[in-house]
Design brief:
This protein is of the alpha+beta class. The protein contains nine helices and eleven strands. The longest helix has 53 residues.
Length: 423
């Protein structure tokens, strides 16, 4: 199964995308949590420093303010540097930062804790965290590492999906192989027992039931085809033999009697060809044999002359033109059947005017100037008008489909009806 959107590929893609989604989600939460954890650590440090100072101030009101390389504390607002004053102006008790959600304006990357102290105003604790945070290049390395891990997880997921998909679709592949290798004469039996009692087994069981019905239908069709072939050919054989015997009798050798006998003989021959064509269309195993072909020009000339003699209309001008001598890949009887049907329709729908049969290199063209509107213009319309001789254009279409021919019909008010059969 090498389809772009096969079940196997869908499973592999689903596993891969699911793995990528999980990995990317994990990456997003880790990357986001890194900043949140840093902010929480710095805020706890400020809380601890403020708590420690308040405890020390209770015991010794003159205890020094918290101070370190990164922490600066102020009780006197006026003693702050100008940049710190601008940052702390208008802020109430709480914790603030210059970088992150809800940031305030201030120099560098600072965290600020403000705690009101009764009798002393407020404690301003500035924490310079810019040098303590993970440098951006290290954050980029971590991000790339996480991204690479995401791709690796997605690849592992796709590989796992490929392995699982093989096991999942194995019954489907097996069922497909069994069905594709079957033919009407050798339909699979006991199909449901070959699979587990799951969805595939249920499908196989239903297919088995359908194939049993198909098998019975094929058997009935073969029986009908065999019986019909026998019952239809026997009367024709009797009629043909009787005509031959009658034509040899002395009392029937008169030219006036021989002519209708010849017409009966020709009609019997055409009926035999018609029966053979019907039986061929009813069978599926009527493929073209290698090297089988027929002389199109010879068949067309014979069919045209016979129909011209049969209809004998002095008001119709007939013309036969052979521009080439092609061969068609089909039995001669089948091609003659198509020719007879097209010519019968042309002669039948032309009470007066002209009829022309042209044989080209890979086509034949039948045109006639019948009465306007007397002849349908499309195959669909022809099928709705069963008047006239022949067995209908529908059979011609089936023969064309069977042998890969193309039938084109054109007609219109004031125009000749033209039928082109390309083979």
């Amino acid at each position: 199964m090498k389809y772009r959107y096969s079940l196997r590929n869908r499973i592999v893609i689903a596993f891969g995308l699911f793995g990528l989604f999980l990995a990317m989600t994990f990456w997003f939460f880790i990357d986001s949590s890194m900043g949140l954890v840093e902010d929480a650590v710095f805020r706890n440090r400020l809380k601890n420093e403020i708590s420690y100072y308040l405890e020390q101030a209770k015991a010794d009101p003159k205890c020094p303010l918290p101070s370190s390389r990164y922490i600066n504390a102020y009780l006197d607002f006026a003693s702050m540097p100008k940049a710190y004053k601008n940052m702390a102006t208008g802020l109430s008790e709480g914790f603030y930062e210059t970088n992150g959600p809800g940031a305030v304006k201030g120099p560098g990357d600072l965290h600020l804790g403000i705690k009101k102290i009764p009798g002393k105003g407020a404690l301003y604790l500035f924490y310079d965290v810019g040098t303590l945070k993970v440098e951006e290049k290290y954050e980029s390395i971590v991000s790339l590492g996480l991204f690479g891990s995401s791709l690796l997880v997605a690849a592992i997921g796709a590989g796992l999906g490929a392995a699982v998909a093989g096991k999942i679709i194995e019954p489907v592949t097996k069922l497909t192989t069994i069905i594709s290798q079957s033919d009407p004469d050798h339909l699979p039996v006991e199909l449901g027992s070959a699979f587990a009692r799951d969805e595939i087994g249920f499908l196989a069981k239903n297919l088995e039931q359908s194939m049993k019905r198909i098998r019975k239908f094929i058997e009935r069709e073969k029986t009908f085809t065999r019986d019909a072939s026998h019952e239809l050919r026997n009367p024709l054989t009797v009629i043909k033999g009787a005509v031959e015997l009658i034509s040899q009798m002395p009392e029937y050798r008169d030219a006036a009697l021989q002519r209708p006998l010849k017409r009966i003989e020709k009609s019997v021959a055409k009926m035999a060809v018609t029966i053979e064509t019907f039986l061929m269309l009813a069978r599926e195993d009527t493929a073209l044999q290698p090297g089988q072909s027929c002389d199109v020009e010879s068949l067309a000339r014979t069919a045209f002359n016979e129909h011209r003699d049969q209809f004998e209309n002095p008001l119709v001008e007939t013309r036969y033109k052979a521009d080439a001598h092609p061969r068609a890949n089909a039995p001669a009887a089948v091609f003659r059947m198509v020719l007879d049907n097209l010519l019968r329709n042309a002669f039948y729908y032309t009470p007066e005017g002209r009829i022309c049969l042209t044989v080209g290199q890979d086509y034949i063209r039948v045109s006639n100037s019948g009465a306007a509107g007397a002849r349908p213009a499309t195959p669909g319309e022809w099928e709705k008008h069963p008047k006239g001789h022949g067995f209908g254009l529908n059979i011609v279409k089936q023969l064309c489909e069977r042998f890969g021919w193309h039938l084109e019909i054109s007609s219109g008010p004031g125009q000749d009806t033209c039928v082109i059969l390309a083979f």
